[in-house]
From TrEMBL:
Any GO MF annotation of the entry: medium-chain fatty acid-CoA ligase activity
UniProt family annotation: Belongs to the ATP-dependent AMP-binding enzyme family.
SUPFAM superfamilies: Acetyl-CoA synthetase-like
InterPro entries, per the entry: AMP-dep_synth/lig_dom, ANL_N_sf
Protein name: Acetyl-synthetase
Domain named AMP-dependent synthetase/ligase: residues: 157-288
One Gene Ontology biological process: fatty acid metabolic process
Lineage: Eukaryota, Fungi, Dikarya, Basidiomycota, Agaricomycotina
Amino acid sequence: MVWGEVIQSAHRATNLVIKLVNEPLFGRGNRPVIAILSLSDTMSYISLLLGILRAGFIAFPISHGNSYTAVAQLLSQSEVTHLLFSPEKKVKDIVSAAMNNLSGESTRTDPFFNPEPLSTIDLDDIAVIYHTSDALTSKEQPQTISFGSRDLTGCVIACHAFPMIHAMGLFLLSSVVSTGFILSIFKPGHHVVPSPDNTLESAAVTKSDFIATTPSFVESWSRNPTDAERITKFSGIAGFIIFGGGPLSKEVGDQLTSKGVNIFIVYGLTQTMLVSKFISEPLGEDWEYFEVTPSREAYFMGHGNDEYEQPKTIAQV
């Protein structure tokens, strides 16, 4: 898709969201919170998310992998005013059970509401609410993220493996609309479940410069000699892999870098967004390390013997 199509799609979504919400554009502190529970394709999801943000509302993507009790808890804790969901039976069952689990709530829609002009947005205000698991209780907790931008420049990044409900999906979305690089995704249409095979094939077809993916996909490619060789030689991919969401086996990383593949770690938290530099200079055999982005100040807990724990507090500089 070209930017003209994306912009029109986002504007149509803005119009739709405002009509469905049927609320005036409130001032700070009174903005509707719009939750999304959907199995839609990436481009449709992006359009809806952009439409919610452009309308001046707060977006809250929720994973369809949650139980109905977890969804009900997130809806209640985040004071969600509206829930948009896709028509798949699995999603509808979760929504139905979650709504039954809530008491004293009501929904309102009006397809005939006239659109209002774009709201004045405070860039330091809440833009999106994401949910993350509490390490102590294992319960899902809402986390707020403000508006912002990322300093990235033009390249093609294949992000087929990342769902839009993940914070990495939001980071890529904020980057593509603020820097102008090209986002490589599955063709709009039915929801496609990403796999190592279709992700690598799609990255090749779109001649992506980088593949943003999960460690499990990287390890799968490394076990297949054809896939491993394809990453190192295909001119579009150019041997650049960006991974996040979990650790990558040292054996796998060392094996790929020895063949000329450049590996970049994306380290971040739902609470802080990106902590590492998104794309630094290739580190070669030192692929396991990353540099903290200059826009963050990280504090490490020392354990002696020159050993430190991961950043515990991240502050905006």
